[in-house]
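name: query_chain
kind: protein
chains: 1
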Amino acid sequence: MPRKTGQTLGVIGGIVIGQAAVEAGFASKVLIVLVGISAIASFLVPNYLVSKANTIIQFIFLFLAAFLGILGIACLPI
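structure:
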């Protein structure tokens, strides 16, 4: 697909899937917002090794948000 069309379909697909996950009760709204922020932030780091460290931190935030909600993120022991 052309570059602009592929990006647009990706964003719209992410919004639709996120909304469906929230309505079905699989994820909270906070979790969807945090995943979106971390996905956008992953494109800001040009260094490969630093981006891999960011990926690990993103998964930590993801699991804490999934299990403990916003309190799990606020109490992150770093």
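note: The radius of gyration is 14 Å.
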